[in-house]
Every structure is written in structure tokens, then in C-alpha cells.
Design a protein that fits this description.
about 300 residues, two-stranded antiparallel ribbon, Four Helix Bundle (Hemerythrin (Met), subunit A), mainly alpha, about 65% helix
């Protein structure tokens, strides 16, 4: 029996009145599961950084990066794009690629620098927020093959990759006999986190400020979807994965350093050729939902 039937003054509920009632608007589960998983990766990185488990913290950020690259593709493949998913993705990115790398860098090596340390961490976090906000209000992408500024996942990978590499170096000087013997030849000096404080400071500022520049970065969007590629491309990708697996900390960091520098190379090349440097036009008007897109 319908709940309204207990009220003698309420009109009778018919099939027509039920159909006239507005349907509740739900959300799509599948793509948002990937987004929530990416959010968990960033949150996990924060918790592990606070507990001094920096190896696990970097793993959480890299896992969030992989999951973040999948949620948009899953939504497009299944036809489940939504404005809710886009906003959810941006909030997840802010945690995973804004707050988590900033806190990780601070806990890893910036804390001994005092106010300079937390200022660098805040600048990175603020730039990530500004970059994501600017991205969400872009209304006319001149060339979808490029991003405006360093993408926030790449900036997070740059910071996390550096911490992963330097953590491996410190562990090697303490545990690997060859490195222990080498350091003992220099008077028994051992690497500690404080030795990388100013390098972490410089890299954190570089990653943060590059996110809010107009430097164009190749997006690789034309290599996905339905576009076919030569067979040799798959062979090269397989070789790259195999090489990275040999020494992941070093090679992933080198890979993301190369990507971070590539934007400046593209900028200089476009300047030298007399091409338009700004590849994204923006508007102060609120964007239509169909114009929103992800980093």
C-alpha cells in the first residue's frame, strides 16, 4: 500500500501520477569506482608519508596516476560520461596529485628547511589547484594534442619519482655492500634525507610553477581510441616497459624529467618557427557541461 493512502485528504495515487513524478537522477558506478580508487591511492600516499613509509607513499601516488588515466577512458567506452564524474575526477586529482605529493615532499626532505620547506610544499599544492581550476574552465581547446602547462599527474610523478629514486639511493648506501664500501672510502659518509633538502625544494617549486605556465605539453591523445598505429609502435612500447622494469625508480624519474623538459623544448621550437605559442583560449563565462574535460 502506498504511504499517501493513509491520508484521507490526499488524492488517489494512480499509474499516471507515478509516471508524472520526476525520476531521481543517479550516478554511473563504473567510471566513478576508478575515480574513487585513484582517490584512495592519493589518500594512502598521504597516510604512508605521515608514517614514514615513503616507498609505499610513492607507490600510492603512481597507482593513482594509472587509475586516473583509466576512469575517463572507461566512461567514454561505456557511454557513461557525466558532469558529476568530471567534478569528482577534479577533486580526486587535487588530493592525489596536489595535496599528496606536497605532503610527501615536505615529510621527505623539506621539513628541516623550516618555513622555506612548507612554503615550497604550499606553492606546489596551490599551483595544482590553480591548474585544475583553469583546466576545467577552458572552453575552446585550439589543439587537443597539447596540454596548457605540465599536467598535474606528471608533476606528481616528477616529485614522487625523485623521492623514490633518492630513497633507493639512501637505502643502497646503507644496505648494498658495494655502495657501503664506496662510501666508506670517502670517510664513511652516508646519505640521509636532509642531503636532498634543497634539491627537493627546487624540484617541488619547478613542478608546481610549471603546472600554471602556458608551456604546451604533448597530450598523446591522438595515440588512443580508434586510431591505428604501426606494428613497430607496439614493439617499441614493449621494449620501453621491459627497460623500465630493470631499474624502475631511475628510469621512471628520467622519463618524467624528459617529459617536463619537453614542454619547454616545444615552446622554444614554436617560438623559433613563428607559430602561435598559446594553444588554449579561455573565457570568463561558465562552461557548458559538454565542454568540460579531464586532465
Amino acid at each position: 500500500m502506498d504511504a499517501d493512502s493513509d491520508n484521507p485528504h490526499s488524492p488517489p495515487v494512480t499509474a499516471m501520477t507515478r509516471a508524472a513524478r520526476p525520476r531521481r537522477k543517479g550516478i554511473y558506478v563504473l567510471p566513478n569506482l576508478f575515480t574513487l580508487a585513484a582517490l584512495f591511492g592519493g589518500f594512502y600516499g598521504i597516510v604512508m608519508a605521515m608514517n614514514g613509509r615513503f616507498d609505499l607513499a610513492t607507490t600510492g601516488i603512481f597507482a593513482a596516476m594509472v587509475l586516473d588515466s583509466l576512469d575517463g577512458r572507461v566512461a567514454r567506452m561505456t557511454g557513461t560520461q557525466s558532469a558529476f564524474g568530471e567534478q569528482m575526477d577534479s577533486l580526486s586529482d587535487m588530493v592525489s596529485f596536489g595535496a599528496a605529493p606536497a605532503l610527501l615532499a615536505y615529510e621527505w626532505a623539506l621539513r628541516p628547511l623550516g618555513r622555506w620547506g612548507w612554503i615550497a610544499a604550499f606553492v606546489y599544492c596551490a599551483c595544482a589547484a590553480l591548474r585544475l581550476a583553469r583546466f576545467n574552465v577552458n572552453t575552446a581547446v585550439v589543439d587537443r594534442r597539447y596540454f596548457q602547462g605540465l599536467p598535474s599527474p606528471a608533476a606528481a610523478a616528477l616529485v614522487a619519482g625523485f623521492i623514490w629514486l633518492t630513497s633507493a639511493m639512501i637505502n643502497a648506501t646503507h644496505e648494498v655492500p658495494l655502495f657501503k664500501a664506496l662510501m666508506s672510502s670517502f670517510g664513511g659518509v652516508r646519505l640521509v634525507r636532509a642531503d636532498f633538502a634543497w634539491l627537493t625544494f627546487a624540484l617541488t617549486l619547478f613542478a608546481g610553477l610549471t603546472m600554471v605556465t602556458n608551456i604546451p605539453y604533448y597530450s598523446f591523445k591522438d595515440f588512443g581510441g580508434r586510431r591505428s598505429v604501426p606494428f613497430v609502435v607496439l614493439v617499441v612500447i614493449a621494449l620501453v616497459i621491459a627497460v623500465i622494469s630493470i631499474e624502475p625508480a631511475t628510469l621512471l624519474f628520467v622519463l618524467f624529467v624528459g617529459y617536463a623538459v619537453s614542454g619547454y623544448i616545444i615552446y622554444v621550437w614554436r617560438r623559433a618557427k613563428g607559430h602561435q605559442v598559446s594553444i588554449v583560449s579561455t573565457s570568463t563565462d561558465e562552461p557548458d557541461e559538454r565542454g568540460l574535460h579531464h586532465d
